[in-house]
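[Q] Does anyone have a clean structure-token version of this?
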Amino acid sequence: MTVLSVRHLNKTYPAFKLEDVSFTLEPGKITGFIGRNGAGKSTTLNSLFNFVHPDSGEISFFGMDFAGHELEIKQRIGFVSSGVNYYANKKLKTISRVTSSFYNNWDQAAYEKYLAMFHLDENKTPAQLSAGMKVKFALALALSHNADLLILDEPTSGLDPVSREDLLEVFMDLCAQGKTILFSTHITSDLDKCADNIIYIKNGRLIADCSVSDFEQSYRIASFDSAEAMREYQGISRGQRRTRKGCTALISAADAQTPGLKLSPADLESIMIHIEKEAE
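[A] Here you go.
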């Protein structure tokens, strides 16, 4: 069964258009959702739950239409939005007690495990937490009701490197248990560590939906001594990126046999930077 299916999702604003976005999530996989600020990631994620009302499109979870099975679906999903807001002066233990009452499968032991892992003090209030600690609290709540699917908007934003590493290990442990995770991020190195698949959105349009390895292997990075030297290959190169010794461009794997190119493997960050610079 498909965990999440999105078909032909559209949303138009005065200055932005989300256009014909379609993708599915495989069970037991981690999928990274990437794109620049304003590309449409949050609009897409919020549309899944009707926080943003899409103009058209079909969305189903676990084979069920969201509109007709909202309560049942929400019991099986953990969601953390990019704007984490709670009652500023309520203690965390009060917020967690209220939150737990909404879920049939709330796991108090799991919640306490994540509190300890993230070094959270339940007697503090959100007003006393840093931005990173607020994210950790939101994650602790989302991870504590045995959700089959986790949808997380920038979950590693504001976390220090050690906390990010701990969280990625949690993600991988959950996927080993058959859980499915979709999370947006600008930290592409996190995806290199844990993601199976990526969804890449640019200017409101989906430009990639595939495995991380397939995406990376479909490109190479070509190095040039100067922008002038790169111009000879402008028909096959994408996006100029300056370096201390000249510049680089993105080359498709199909063009990698072109004579005279100095090539190196491409990772997610370098591919994304070159593709985004292509339009500049």
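[Q] Thanks! Anything notable?
[A] DSSP finds ten helices and 14 strands in the chain.
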